[in-house]
Records
---
Amino acid sequence: MITKERYRIYVVEDDGMLADEICRLLMKWGYEVQIAEMFDNILDEFLTVQPHVVLMDVNIPSFDGFYWCKKIRDISAVPIIYISSRDSSMDVIMGMNNGGDDYLTKPFDNAVLVAKLQAVIRRTYEYSFQESHVLCCRRLTVNLEEATAVYDNKKCELTRNELKILRLLMENQGKIVTRKALMRSLWDDEIYVNENTLTVNVNRVRLKLEELGLQSFITTKKGMGYVIL
């Protein structure tokens, strides 16, 4: 889940000198920075890094930044700021249409980059009182609005109860969620629900995650409940 401690910035820039310069600049401002290494699979690296903001160059190896922005938008609402030497109106429009939040052309003033970064962070994490619609844990991404789970570029649909189970467990990662708490979340009055019904629902979640390739995601704590470690 997103926190307000140190914001993590994922820099997708294939110019090593510029990437290092951006890294040094942002670290001085107290940000945690991860520079892209896997240009042939930005999405996988994005899921591993789980950044609060992405700085995305457009002209990068394999696929361009517009492509990767669109891929990230399929699974996440994380803010994306383009940094590119392509400064035509069409490029800016294309960037916004593919899910970008802002566009900064090279060469840029470092102060402008920091100001844009601070602005998008304020809008997204500090001025917004709305609940995050995306949960991420161990490279599994759950979209609460779409009721979908994504892992290793594979996607599945979730039922209402499956979504509630995953949400409660992911929001309490590392803590045991009791069977009673889960039953109360799924049904208004758990007194009239057979506990076997909960077991069936949890097993359905496990099966769907296994089909995505995610094994042993939910651990059973006998006599207590379930936990995601």
Note: The chain has two domains: 8-126, 137-227.
---
Amino acid sequence: MNWKTIASELFPQGHDIAEKGFVLSGTAKVDGSDVAVIGTTAHVPIGVEIALAQAELVLRTVRDHPRWPIVILIDTQGQLLRHRDEMLGINSYMAHLGKCIDLARRRGHPIIGLVYDQALSGGFITSGLMADACYALPDASIRVMGLPAMARITKVPEEKLTELAKHNPVFAPGPENYLRMGGIHDIWKENLAQRLAAALKEADNTDRRSELGLERGGRKQAQLVIQTVLADGHAGAA
């Protein structure tokens, strides 16, 4: 999906988003108000340079545009699998990006993520999954790990994983399964500008993903485990 087409649908009141080295940045109008836009395109893998570039854009927004909403447009094949980046500690750079997004949240910036094309593994974790709420388009491709790779890592036959994926969204890719698990809040099929405006108005920094996963039947234990741990913690403190 071309990012320019998506940007036109999301921001009919105008934007100045530009692409540089597969990184998107700029500002836009949503319901007459200014928002900052950060993202990636062309399925680019997130390496050291791109993680730093995105982190810089987030920090610049915090410095120059206090409390502006931030919209993250997501299209990435995940973490860059390159020896140089691994030796430089790509995990730390991606963690830095995640911390910058969390800093923006703590400084009062509503943050919305939109998977408009592809979202895989670490590139998704440190972008869309760090937002207050993440959404996806119907044709988006979302997964943490493909079933062939999962089979190699877990030593479980791919045929078995394919069968499990039919009934358990944890094993299955696609926006519908991430919706069931609470990983994304909704799938936007039309009226993108209206949906974005509503999402920004509804955004808060309460993490409801495990709660939504329980309500939707995609994650049946996460919220119960959280409640048990919190209850034990309160009991211990008393």
Note: The first strand starts at residue 18 and ends at 20.
